[in-house]
Amino acid sequence: MFNALDAHVWRLVYKWARFSHSNKPMYWVKARYFGKFNPARRDSWVFGSQVTGYYLRKFAWTPIVRHRMVAGTASPDDPALTDYWAMRRRRSKPPLGRTMLRLLQSQHGKCSICRGLLLHADHEPQTPQEWQQWLVATRKAIRTHAITATPGAGTPDKRAAQHLVHAHCQRRIIGNSNGHSTSDCL
Question: Is the separation of the CB atoms in 82 and 134 below 8 Å?
Answer without folding.
Answer: no
